[in-house]
Amino acid sequence: MAKKMDKASDARQVRCPKCKDFYEFFVGLPPKACPECLQKREAQIQHVRELIRENKGINAMELNKHTGVPVGFIMKMLQEGDIELA
Ligand SMILES: [Zn+2]
User: Fold this and answer.
1) What is the structure's pLDDT at 43?
2) Percentage of residues in the chain with pLDDT exceeding 70?
3) Where are the beta strands (DSSP E) in the chain?
4) How many other CB atoms are found less than 10 A from the CB of residue 21?
5) Which helix (H) or strand (E) element contains residue 79?
6) What is the value of pTM for the model shown?
7) What is the predicted pLDDT for the residue at 44?
């Protein structure tokens, strides 16, 4: 997907709500977290998805036990449609 490049001067700094580090973003609304946290979040989602695929009928508590991903975050993934439980 080709996006037009914006000037570097358009960069804005925001504080990541997760790790409290500052990070820059360029256009539109700031991402939910810094690139590092987003990457970690994505890795957790992938991990949870894998477990769901391999363990039909698994619930949020079991997912938490096996992945270490907080139940609250698993519920959020469900709400936002990132994952689906049977
Ligand atoms: Zn962060």
Assistant:
1) 95
2) 90
3) 12-15, 22-25
4) 11
5) helix 71-79
6) 0.72
7) 95
Going from the Cα of 39 to the center of ligand 1, the distance in angstroms, rounded, reads 9
Element (DSSP H or E) covering residue 73: helix 71-79
Q: In this structure, what token pair is assigned to residue 23?
A: 């990070």
Parse the chain into domains and list their residue ranges: 41-86
Q: For residue 20, report the distance from its CA to the centre of ligand 1, in Å.
A: 6
- Give 23 Cα–ligand 1 centroid separation in angstroms: 8
Do the bridges between strand 22-25 and strand 12-15 make them parallel or antiparallel, or are there none, so unpaired? antiparallel
- In tens, the pLDDT along 19-51 reads 999 998 888 887 889 999 999 999 999 999 999
**φ and ψ at residue 13, rounded to 5 degrees:** -105, 135
Q: Which residue has the tokens 């360029």?
A: 26
